[in-house]
Specification:
Blueprint lengths: L4 H14 L60 E7 L4 H11 L2 H4 L1 E7 L4 H8 L7 E5 L5 H11 L3 E4 L4 E2 L5 E2 L3 E2 L3 H15 L1 H4 L7 E7 L4 H17 L5 E5 L7 H13 L6 E6 L4 H11 L6 E5 L3 H8 L8 E4 L3 H16 L28 E4 L3 H13 L1
Helix pairs in contact: 2-12, 6-8, 9-10
Length: 396
């Protein structure tokens, strides 16, 4: 199986905490050399709610900060926005390329600055960004308190982009407008898909011989939520069947960890003939797939993941095995709300409390919104069309 270890191993350690790639470096942050992306705007934005930024007469939440806001962005000067990130790497470059595609429609210029995983450089350089119109911020949770203090004093509109600021019980209370995947939603989505589509791979089987292994991580809130969503979905469909939760907390986030855990669980349960395996992060499915191939049961295992980066690489190389599905989410689905949200804040049409106000939910508290990213399960057969459809939706 083709692997991406040169890129994925580095980014996975960071992704376990912030859903981004990590790198090393020193000195002053430098502008990225990522190639420019197409910035052709939508010919006609989708229909939206009421006039953005004005209170609806019935007192309902504002629909503001969206791609479809009925605003003439060309009627003002071009805003100077920075995508400022603790991390660096090809995965982060992909976010920047997607943000560049939003520049023309939103009438903004977006720079990309990285601290190359240097905590002191990240904080020191962050303090120098007061001259920007807006900031899309991807921070490191190890320096979160210092970052939070700087941002509260900086006086520049900003959005937490990819990495959230959370507190409260189970670290689930959102403290600032944020664009992240909803862990419980995507976990449930991934496993529900397996439960509803396994017959396409196996036909009518004796489901009493079906078990599930859920590789999760209890010490990282965003990943723990994904595991919880996956578990909830399984229990709705097969509550009496064997369920194994493999907590990877305290272990290395590698293919080898996943390989060893899956090998042990399967070998210890010979009465289980069919397996679902859910993985909460992108590197684990590779190890899972290797394990079931080594055990000679890959035709009786279905693997899914709450991330799609490595799935796309594997399927693109021609892989057809037990790893059949993943939750697909394109960088454009982060970039479009990031660009439109920061513009709404700079315009003054929204405040941090009213941005995406109609998207607030119990899951993260009602003080600040977590943008509701559109996600769906993708497979080898449809992943190319999925990503093409996202691009058409926003930029065709």
């Amino acid at each position: 199986m083709k692997k991406l270890l040169s890129i994925i191993t580095a980014l996975t350690m960071a992704f376990a905490l912030a859903a981004c790639a990590g790198g090393g470096g020193a000195g002053e942050p430098a502008q990225s050399t990522a190639p420019p992306a197409s910035s052709t705007p939508s010919a006609e934005p989708p229909a939206g709610g009421g006039e953005s930024g004005s209170a609806p007469p019935d007192g309902s939440p504002l629909h503001v900060g969206y791609w479809d806001d009925p605003v003439d962005h060309s009627a003002r000067r071009t805003y100077d926005v920075v995508f400022y990130t603790f991390f660096s790497g090809s995965f982060v470059d992909s976010f920047y390329a997607a943000l560049q595609k939003c520049e023309a429609k939103m009438n903004i210029k977006i720079d990309y600055i990285t601290a190359n995983s240097d905590p002191e450089k990240f904080i020191n350089s962050l303090e120098l960004l007061s001259n920007r119109d807006g900031i899309l911020l991807d921070h490191d949770i190890n320096t979160e308190k210092r970052t939070w203090d700087v941002m509260q004093d900086l006086g520049v509109p900003w959005i937490a982009f990819v990495t959230p600021f959370m507190d409260g019980e189970s670290a689930s209370h959102n403290r600032w407008p944020t664009i992240i995947m909803d862990g419980k939603v995507v976990g449930r989505q991934a496993v529900s898909w397996l439960c509803e589509n396994y017959q396409d791979y196996w036909g009518d089987i004796d489901t009493s011989k079906l078990g599930m292994i859920n590789l999760t991580m209890s010490t990282a809130g965003m990943f723990n939520d994904r595991g919880a969503g996956a578990r909830d979905a399984w229990m709705e469909y097969f509550p009496d069947n064997l369920y194994i939760e493999g907590d990877t907390a305290g272990q290395q986030f590698t293919t080898e960890t996943a390989y060893n855990m899956i090998s042990a669980y399967v070998s210890s349960n010979p009465d289980v003939e069919y397996w679902f395996i859910n993985t909460i992060m992108m590197l684990f499915p590779v190890g899972c797939a290797r394990a079931v191939e080594t055990l000679g049961i890959d035709d009786k295992v279905l693997i899914t993941c709450e991330e799609s980066v490595t799935a796309i690489e594997e399927w693109g190389s021609g892989y057809r095995g037990a790893w059949v599905a993943a939750v697909g989410i394109a960088e454009e689905l982060y970039a479009a709300p990031g660009a439109s949200g920061i513009v709404a804040l700079i315009d003054g049409r929204a405040t941090p409390e009213t941005l995406w106000e109609d998207a607030k939910s119990d899951a993260y508290g009602f003080d600040y919104a977590v943008y509701p990213l559109e996600t769906e399960v993708i497979t080898y057969d449809n992943y190319e069309e999925y990503f093409e459809s996202i691009d058409r939706k926003y930029f065709a």
